[in-house]
Automatic annotation (TrEMBL), chains A, B:
SMART domains: FCD, HTH_GNTR. The keyword Cell membrane does not apply. Transmembrane segments: none annotated. Keywords: DNA-binding, Transcription, Transcription regulation. Signal peptide: none annotated. The keyword Transcription applies. Residues 9-76 form the HTH gntR-type domain. It comes from Chelatococcus sambhunathii. This is DNA-binding transcriptional regulator, GntR family.
Length: 247, 247
DNA sequence: ATAACCATACTACCATACCAGTTAAGCGAG
DNA sequence: CTCGCTTAACTGGTATGGTAGTATGGTTAT
């Protein structure tokens, strides 16, 4: 987060980006207090744009603003992560199935390129780059069905999941598995097989359900003391069997 | 919009609510300029909370902020409405199908009550109340699958559709049709028939595709000069036949 | 008459000042 | 020593001031 802000551009969105990145990468840990004053001083800006960034972070569910008390990074809530995942699955499965009907061939080519780039990133073990291409893949797919204006919406929802994703990076991340899943999605769309494309996307986006309980047990200090809602348990057992995610 | 703000509570969210309502009900027309100064003076508050409300409105896609120029109510974009509808259909169909697996019986009772209230509103021809209960129905359903924390997202997406909905109110609004569709959704969930519940919700949320092109032709001054994306044309023809929404 | 220019009156954005409410430490009474 | 009150040092929310950039209308030069 050493990046400086560009005073020529709008400052508030830059602060938001930087803080979001810092929270998602666990540079700022749950429970940590974020001071408007301190953040503003660090970047050489006033409290006002920092405050606007805080508001956006709170809408994304990454911080909690307590008036006259402080702004704090929230603990990871399995409930919130599961709900965000639910929404994302709903939207992206719809994107995948719709892509079978309307996606132009050029879009499939671009998706193929992104998978190739992702393989390179995996080969050189560059996890940050890997995640960047992962995000680009999903965004490109959304654009392919002319849902570009819906992407910011997905991006907001993704914030909850990204922190978990980053937390799972140091572990043996099955990057090749995710790449295979991306490839399967593209193949299904190329075949114009809506059912298969939707199923592939659904399976892909349910991976996190497998690792989430294990991560929560491994890092209890980072997690809220709550449980996954019924729909998440339902989805997990339907996808990975009744005894999903053992320790 | 004569409601005064409560100075004891946070002002910015109140301003947002009031302005959003004014835009959705077409009290503020597309193209109209919103002045921080003027809005602030009208409600007896300073420019700062008004500015924060503007930012949220711009994120909801209801206004466009042009730095150093002004903030303007955007014209209704068929593309944006269709994309918002796409996202909402995806999420709420998933909610409906999931409800079949996890919704408790009490939730179904509450949904039934809301339908009864909606019938009363329709009988007394109170369209504002009708829309209130309509929103309550969908929110309650989301809560029934423990997706309460996902509702704010749906609410943001809904803003685009609400303006169209309000525009269609003066016309012969088939309130009874919408009530029947709600009832069918509840019946399907009560039967734990996920396929049927999803289909019912899908049909319900696609009604707007039928009226949108007609409204755009009837009120060209309110609409952006754009077209529905491919996924919306696909959905309309799949649901209402190839010649959907004639003049 | 027309086109270029400049002064003016806006705008949004950022910085600063002020306010009310919360917290916590320190002091004094029991 | 312990408990309770006071008070000072925070917080976020709001109000206000300053700055740079944009539209506009009148003026001047062509």
């Amino acid at each position: 987060m050493r990046n400086e802000v560009d005073p020529a551009a709008a400052i508030a969105p830059q602060i938001y980006r930087l803080l979001r990145q810092a929270i998602v990468t666990l540079e700022y840990l749950p429970g940590q207090r974020l001071s408007e004053q301190e953040i503003g001083a660090r970047f050489g800006v006033s409290r006002q744009p920092v405050r606007e960034a805080f508001i956006k972070l709170s809408e994304a569910g990454l911080v909690r603003i307590l008036p006259q008390r402080g702004t704090f990074v929230v603990r990871i809530s399995m409930r919130d992560v599961a709900n965000a995942r639910f929404v994302r699955e709903a939207v992206e499965v719809a994107v995948a199935t719709t892509a079978c009907a309307v996606a132009p061939p050029e879009a499939l080519d671009r998706l193929g390129e992104l998978i190739a780039l992702q393989k390179e990133a995996a080969a050189s073990d560059d996890q940050r780059l890997f995640l960047r291409y992962d995000e680009a893949f999903h965004r490109t797919l959304a654009e392919a069905v002319e849902c570009a204006s819906a992407w910011p919406f997905i991006e907001d929802v993704k914030a909850q999941m990204d922190r978990v994703r980053y937390l799972s990076l140091p572990a043996a991340s099955p990057m090749s598995l995710l790449i295979d899943q991306h490839a399967e999605i593209v193949r299904a769309i190329a075949c114009r097989d809506a059912q298969r494309a939707g199923d592939a996307m659904r399976l892909h986006l349910r991976e996190i359900l497998n690792s989430l309980p294990r991560l929560a047990r491994a890092h209890p200090e980072l997690f809220e003391d709550d449980e996954m809602p019924a729909h998440a348990r339902e989805a997990a057992s339907a996808t990975f069997g009744r005894d999903a995610a053992p320790a």
